[in-house]
Amino acid sequence: MAYEIPCWLMRGGTSKGPFFRASDLPQDIATRDRVIMAVMGTPDSRQIDGLGGATSLTSKAGLLSIPTDDEADLDFLFAQVGTHEAMVDTTPNCGNMLAAALPAAIEMGMLRGDRGRTTRRVRTVNTGVIAQITIETPDGHPQYDGDAPIDGVPRPAAPVSCGFLDTQGAVCGMLLPSGNASDTIDGIKVTMIDNGMPVLLVRAADVGVTGYESRDELNAHGTLKARIEAIRLQAGPLMNLGDVSKKPIPKVTLVAAPRAGGALCTRTFIPHDCHAAIGVLGAVTVATAAVMPGTVASELAQAGEGDTRTLSIEHPSGEFSVELGLQEGRVVRAALLRTARLLMRGSVPISPAIWPGPGA
C-alpha cells in the first residue's frame, strides 16, 4: 500500500512546486531525492506521471523545518528538480520559492501568523542566506488576494516583501569569485558574480544577438545555446563551482541596454533554456553588477546614483524592480516584492518501491 506524504502545492513569485515538512520525508538524502523525483514525475520531459510542470520554473520543491538555533524562525531547503535528468540539486537558492516558504509554514501549522502582518526570518539552508519575509495575515492566516502585480504572473495578489542582507558570495564564496570585475573566456568578455545567485554575465551583442529577442527565438537558436554553454562550463571552476555540466548554476544572463525605461535588459538561461522572466536572487545579482564599475552590465546600464537605488531589470515578460542599499559603493542590502499563493493542499502517495514509509 502506498504511503501518503502531506503536501502543499504553492506558487512563489514566478515559480511553483510542492512544499513538505522535512520531517515527513526520508532522512536519508538519496532516498529523499528519489521520493521528490517520484512526486515530480522525473525524469520525463513532460513529467506526465507527477506534479512537475515540465519546465525549470515549475519543477521545484521546498522542504521546511524549525531551526534549532536562534538565527532564524524557519529553515527552507530549496530543491531544483530535473525534468529530462534524474536530478535533485540543493546547491542554489531560489528567491521565488522563498516567497512561498513563510505562508506554507503557517498553512502547515509550523508557525503561527500575527494579526495584520507577519514578519519572520527565513534561512535558505542551501547557502545560509537569511531573508526577512513579511506577508499579509489579517486574521493570522496568509492572505493571497491583493493588488500587487508582478510580471510573469497573470493576476495581482497580496504582496510578499523580501529583504536580503549578507548575500555576497553565498554560493561561490566571494562576490567576484575570480577576483575581477570582468574576465575573458573564449574571446568573450564576461562578468562572474554571486550576490545570492551565481551568474555569468555576457553582452548579448558579443554572442551575435541583440538581447531583445523573445524567449522562443532564443530557445530555437541552437548555435547560441551551444556557444554560451561552452563558456558556462569553463566559468564553473573559475567560480569555485567545479564541474557544472549537470548543475543549474551558474545562470547565464545576456545583457543589453534597456529599451523599456529600465536599468538593464536581460535574457537569462537556467542553464540551457531561456527563462520567461528572471529569478529573484538572479535579479539581485544582475542589479549588483549594474552598479559596479568594470562589469559588462555597468557598461550598458542606466543604474542611477545615490546610496539607495531602485533598478528595473527588464526581462522577456516585463520587469523586476530591485531596491539596493549601498555603503561606500558596496551593495549591503537588497529588497524586492513578490507574491505567493496556495494552489493545493493534500497528500502525495508514494510507491512502496520508492519508499515504504517511516519505520518500514
Summarize the topology.
Blueprint: E1 3-12, E2 15-21, H1 29-40, E3 60-65, E4 74-81, E5 88-89, H2 95-108, E6 116-124, E7 129-137, E8 159-165, E9 183-185, E10 188-194, E11 198-203, H3 215-219, H4 222-238, E12 251-256, E13 264-269, H5 280-290, E14 308-315, E15 318-327, E16 330-350
Parallel strand pairs: 2-3, 4-6, 11-12, 13-14
Antiparallel strand pairs: 1-2, 1-16, 3-4, 4-5, 6-7, 7-8, 8-16, 9-10, 10-11, 12-13, 14-15, 15-16
Structure in words:
With 360 residues, the protein is an alpha+beta fold. It has two domains: 3-169 and 340-350, Diaminopimelate Epimerase, Chain A, domain 1, CATH 3.10.310; 183-324, Roll (Diaminopimelate Epimerase, Chain A, domain 1), CATH 3.10.310.10. It is 16% helix and 35% strand. The chain has helices at 29-40, 95-108, 215-219, 222-238, 280-290, and strands at 3-12, 15-21, 60-65, 74-81, 88-89, 116-124, 129-137, 159-165, 183-185, 188-194, 198-203, 251-256, 264-269, 308-315, 318-327, 330-350. The chain has an eight-stranded mixed β-barrel. A hairpin with a 6-residue loop joins β4 (74-81) and β5 (88-89). It is globular and about 60 Å long. The model has no long low-confidence stretch (mean pLDDT 95).
